[in-house]
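Human: I would love a firmer grasp of how sequence relates to backbone shape in proteins. Take your time, and here it is.
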Amino acid sequence: MKKIMISVSRIILVLAIIFAILTAVLLPSREQARRLECRGQLREIGLICHAYSDAHNKTYPFMSQTPGCFAFQHGFINPTAPNACSSILACPCDEETWENYPEWTIERYLNRNSYLYLGYALLSETEGLAFTDTCRAQFAAGHTLSGEVPAPEGAGSGGGCVFLPLAEDIATRLPKASSIVTNANIPVVVEKRYHHPRGRVGVLYLDGHVEYVRMGEKWPANEEFLEALEDIEAQYALEEEK
C-alpha cells in the first residue's frame, strides 16, 4: 500500500513538473504570438494612414469629431466591416475590448478601442502633457480637434506655439527642424497601457515602423501622458453611456 502511495505521489510530482515546464515554455510563446499579431495591426494602421496621405497632399487622417476620442474620423476604416475593424483595432491582449465588442455599435468601437491615435506631432513629455491639458479645455468647451491647435508658448509641436497635425513632411515644418527629428521618432499611434507584460506598449511611428517600448524608457511610453489620454477618453465614454 505504501509503495502504491509513493508511486502515486511521484506521478503527481512528475506531472506538476511537466505542467510547470509547459507553462514556462508556452506562455511566453503565446505572448510572443499575440505581440506579433498586434505589431501587424499597428503596421496596417500605418499603411492606412500612408495611403490616406498619398491621396490628401501628405496629410494624415483627421481626429475623430467625437469629444474625448483619440481615433480617426469615421470612414478611414470601413465601418460596415466589423470583422475587419476588430482585426485591426483590437489588440489580441486587450481582453476588455474583445469582451465588449459584441455589445458595442461599430461607431463606438471605432472610437473606443485598444489604440490611441495622436493625430498631432508630439515629440516630448512637455508637448504631450500640454496637449492633454489643451484637449481637456477644448472638449470641456464643446470643441473638437481640427487643424492647427493653439498651444502654450514653447510647448507646441517641436517647441512652437501650436500643435501641428501629422503629415508625411511634418519633420521639415517643425520650428526646431533638424536631422534629429525624423519620421522615425514621431509617434502616430500608441497602445493603451497594460496589454503586454513588463510594462511595454506598442508604438507606430510616422515612418511606418513599430516598436514595443517599456514604460518610461522612450517617448511616448510615458505613464503620466498615457494615463491622461485614457482618463479623458474614459470620462467621455461614460458620458456617452448616460
